[in-house]
Amino acid sequence: MADQPRLRKPDTRTALAELLSQMRATFPLDAPDSRLCNLDCNGCSKKLLEFLEMQIEDWERRLGEGETPTFGDLEKLGRMARKIHRALVRNGVLSPDRNPEARS
Ligand code: SF4
Asked: Most buried among 11, 88, 91, 98, using CB within 10 Å?
């Protein structure tokens, strides 16, 4: 029987770094209040973005210190990004086609 090619173990550090960079490119972390605030907020866009930025900065620091995230960490961060993305779309801050986990 022929040898099966060995599957390379996915690198969660690289995957998480890519997700963080995608999130920074997608979410308007530096947007002024005039862009975020409207009269019909369905969840505070400002607070959601502040929370998201803290999560991004925390993981950037942890990766910088050499930590290796688990698949659970990746999944949790991706799920949180999708939830916040949906809220920002509802509030009219983002358009629906800018998905933080969209593959190019
Ligand atoms: S809920 Fe938040 S985003 Fe909406 S108007 Fe108030 S501060 Fe601005």
From this structure: 88
pLDDT in tens, 2-46: 566 666 666 999 999 999 999 999 999 999 999 999 878 888 999
**Best CA proximity match to 98, nearest among 14, 12, 13, 24:** 24
Residue 55 lies in a domain: yes
Is 91 part of any domain? yes
Domain count, the chain: 1
- Residue 15 CB less than 6 A away from ligand 1: no
Q: Structure pTM?
A: 0.83
Helix (H, G, I), strand (E, B) or coil at 5: coil
